[in-house]
């Protein structure tokens, strides 16, 4: 992807200190509220900014006019609810956020500006069973590569949001038992990556980042209650409740892959029996299809066989979809999400996978819950987790508090 040139706008340190008790102080405080809304939510109309900040539309209009004159924001004509409106876009101050997604066989890095433009992204392969040290080395080298390609210095990077396919203890930033990357268990990712990258690091489960990406860059930016489910070698979910990521007590949430589907099923890597992963992960699908195949089938092969109408592949996917739908129903009965978004390497299947998931959801949920919960494929594909990593950095309160003024 071609990098777009960054703006020359810079942070003015003096602007951080509004003079108390004056009209100018009030204006600066209101400007901070608008900037915070734009940093956390991306481009918005003036009416949306008014709702987000609690300011009147007239106040927002006046402040936006001043900010546009100073080069802090750009306004672009748009339509909202069929009416003409102005979309307000925060100008990039030269700083960027990095999102890093590390999987079993890949690492992906994205760079995003403060205006939520994607400036550059690249991916690289990782060997199966790679160590934390090897994953860190490849991720750091790839970050250096994309920064060099975009002509951005490392000092301009506000931080890196890093996604790992496994549970993360938020108290320590440590990967705990149950991760798809067993070689990473016990590693303090926050300290290890922070020391190597030399910047603030934010560690998240990859499904959490996928969920965050859906409400930041996806088509569900106005959804308050959303479940993102990633189906791959492992199966996990990220939950958006009342507009924010849900972490539970210590951060171990959304482990749907270890929901019991069959009490007498296969023993799972977690030690339990009959978990969802044993019947619906891509690893299980590959194993089943390879039994009767003349040539080895990989994840992409599952998609190709199903799209080509292969009966064995369609049956395996249908069985997996029904099991996934049953697990989704258990969560839907509990939290009543508006939307369930499916992610992972099988998104290319579309309705071939979505239809059995919907059937399973309707069969095992309370009728009104199943009928009012929509199920979609993620439009972000394999970029979702890395985009979510960048969104974590952009949403940090310290970044949202920095007003931008021309140098």
Topology overview:
Layout: H1 23-41, E1 44-45, H2 46-53, H3 57-69, E2 73-80, E3 83-90, E4 96-102, E5 106-113, E6 118-125, H4 132-150, E7 157-164, E8 168-169, E9 174-175, H5 189-197, E10 201-205, H6 206-216, E11 226-231, E12 235-241, E13 244-245, H7 277-280, H8 282-291, H9 299-307, H10 311-335, E14 339-343, H11 351-364, H12 367-372, E15 374-377, H13 384-394, H14 397-400
Parallel strand pairs: 4-7, 7-10, 11-14, 14-15
Antiparallel strand pairs: 1-3, 2-3, 4-5, 5-6, 8-9, 11-12, 12-13
Helix pairs in contact: 1-3, 2-3, 6-13, 9-10, 10-11
Pfam family, one: ROK
Domain HTH marR-type: 33-84
Biased composition (Polar residues): 1-10
How would you describe the overall organization of this protein?
With 407 residues, the protein is of the alpha/beta class. It has 3 domains: 13-93, Arc Repressor Mutant, subunit A (Orthogonal Bundle); 96-211 and 386-397, Nucleotidyltransferase, domain 5 (2-Layer Sandwich); 219-379, ATPase, nucleotide binding domain (Nucleotidyltransferase, domain 5), CATH 3.30.420. The chain is 40% helix and 20% strand. It is built from 14 helices and 15 strands. The strands form 4 sheets. It has a 5-stranded mixed beta sheet. Strands 13-12-11-14-15 form a 5-stranded mixed beta sheet, sandwiched between helices. α1 (23-41) packs across α3, α2 crosses α3 and α10 (311-335) crosses α11 (351-364). The chain starts with 22 loop residues before the first helix and ends in a 7-residue tail after the last helix. 45% of the residues are buried.
């Amino acid at each position: 992807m071609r990098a777009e040139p960054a703006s020359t706008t810079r942070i003015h340190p003096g602007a951080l200190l509004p003079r108390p008790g004056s009209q100018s102080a009030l204006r600066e405080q209101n400007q901070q509220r608008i900037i915070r809304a734009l940093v956390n939510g991306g481009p918005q109309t003036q009416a949306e900014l008014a709702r987000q900040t609690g300011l009147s539309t007239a106040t927002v209009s006046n402040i936006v006019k001043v900010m546009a004159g100073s080069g802090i924001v750009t306004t672009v004509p748009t339509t909202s609810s069929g009416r003409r409106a102005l979309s307000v876009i925060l100008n990039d101050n030269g700083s960027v956020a990095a999102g890093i997604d590390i999987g079993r066989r890949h690492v992906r890095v994205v760079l995003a500006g403060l205006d939520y433009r994607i400036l550059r992204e690249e991916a690289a392969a990782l060997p199966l069973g790679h160590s934390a040290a090897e994953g860190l080395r490849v991720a750091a080298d790839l970050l250096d590569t994309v920064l060099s390609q975009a002509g951005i210095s490392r000092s301009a990077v506000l931080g890196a949001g890093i996604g790992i396919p496994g549970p993360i203890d938020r108290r320590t930033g440590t990967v705990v038992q149950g991760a798809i990357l067993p070689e990473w268990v016990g590693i303090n990712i926050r300290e290890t990556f922070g020391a190597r990258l030399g910047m603030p690091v934010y560690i998240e489960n990859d499904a959490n980042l996928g969920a965050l990406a859906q409400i930041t860059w996806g088509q569900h930016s106005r959804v308050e209650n959303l479940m993102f489910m990633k189906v791959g070698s492992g199966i996990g979910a990220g939950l958006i409740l009342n507009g924010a990521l849900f972490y539970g007590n210590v951060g171990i949430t959304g482990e749907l892959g270890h929901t019991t589907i069959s009490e007498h099923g296969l023993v799972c890597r977690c030690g339990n029996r009959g978990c969802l992963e044993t019947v619906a992960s891509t690893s299980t699908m590959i194993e089943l299809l390879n039994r009767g195949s003349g040539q080895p089938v990989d994840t992409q092969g599952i998609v190709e066989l199903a799209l080509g109408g292969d009966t064995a592949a369609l049956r395996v996917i249908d069985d997996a979809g029904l099991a996934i739908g049953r697990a989704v129903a258990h969560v839907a009965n509990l939290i009543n999400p508006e939307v369930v978004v499916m992610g992972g390497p099988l998104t290319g299947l579309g309705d071939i996978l979505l239809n059995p998931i919907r059937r399973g959801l309707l069969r095992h949920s309370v009728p009104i819950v199943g009928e009012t919960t929509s199920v979609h494929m993620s439009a972000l594909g394999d970029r979702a987790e890395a985009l979510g990593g960048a969104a974590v950095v952009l949403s940090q309160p310290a970044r949202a508090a920095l007003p931008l003024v021309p140098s």
